[in-house]
Amino acid sequence: MFSSLRLVTLARGASGPAREAAVQSLSEAARGAGALTTLFEPTLPGVWNGGDLIWRSEYRDEAQWRDSESGQRFRRSAASVLGDPSRVSLVEHVAFAGGACGGASPGRGLYRVALFCASRNPTTDRLARFGSETCAMPRHVRSIRRWQLSTPLEASGSRPWTHVWEQEYDDLAGLNGPYMLHPCHWGEVDRWFDPEDPDWLIDPMLCHTFCEFRTAVIGASIPRARVGREGLPRNGASGSPCAPSRADDRVKTVHK
């Protein structure tokens, strides 16, 4: 599995009809890109640097993605809109293979994705600890139904993004309540984002965005036979609210 994710911010100065035409062109490009699965939806109120549109496509592999985006159809329909500042002011883009993932999609609900740039002293050990603690969150935040943490092969936009943190929820309440307010989040993982903490790792500029979905999004194209069952690396401190515990069905690794 290989995924392409774009957060598209439309030009504010564009007229209503021009904005509608740009959205229509991108929607048609998304549906005609030849991806195995596609999510193309407007973002909901409350996003942070999240754009106006979320466009996420899953392909069989990197080669299929490159073939799709190098074709004349994509260049004529999508690239011409995305590269036109009179219609689109910003595109955050990441292309990535499947990473650590787990859970089962509710089939419809809320899709949330965050883009991070680990730019402050990103040593191998610090990156491993951050990844381990982030992946452990779904063990404690039970409103996360499906999740994946990936490292982009290619990234562009406001920052050279280093992490793609995706989740599926039943609804927005599962994100704003159990996720945002859990001690695992604000009492442990947040230190990686805090410039006043010795463990500060993540650039303050990040993307937090979400939209509705009506069919599975994360790893929707992966045959179940390709999904393994493995525990997370045990890098969490004993007693920590985010310390990885025993392996269970909610923790899986996609084998590429």
Write the layout of secondary structure elements.
Blueprint (H helix, E strand, L loop, with lengths): L1 E9 L5 H16 L5 E6 L10 E7 L2 H9 L1 H11 L5 E10 L2 E4 L5 E8 L7 H17 L5 E5 L3 E3 L6 E7 L2 H10 L1 H4 L20 E7 L38 E2 L3
Antiparallel strand pairs: 1-3, 1-4, 2-3, 4-8, 5-7, 5-11, 6-9, 6-10, 7-9
Helix pairs in contact: 1-3
Tag the structure with descriptive keywords:
about 260 residues, alpha+beta, Alpha-Beta Plaits, six-stranded antiparallel sheet, five-stranded antiparallel sheet, 11 strands, about 25% strand, globular, disordered C terminus
CATH topology: Alpha-Beta Plaits
From N to C, what is the helix and strand string? EHEEHHEEEHEEEHHEE
**Quick one: overall form?**
globular
CATH architecture: 2-Layer Sandwich
Mind describing the biggest β-sheet? Answer: 6 strands, antiparallel
- CATH class category name: Alpha Beta
Q: How many DSSP E strands?
A: 11
- Terminal residue distance: 7 Å
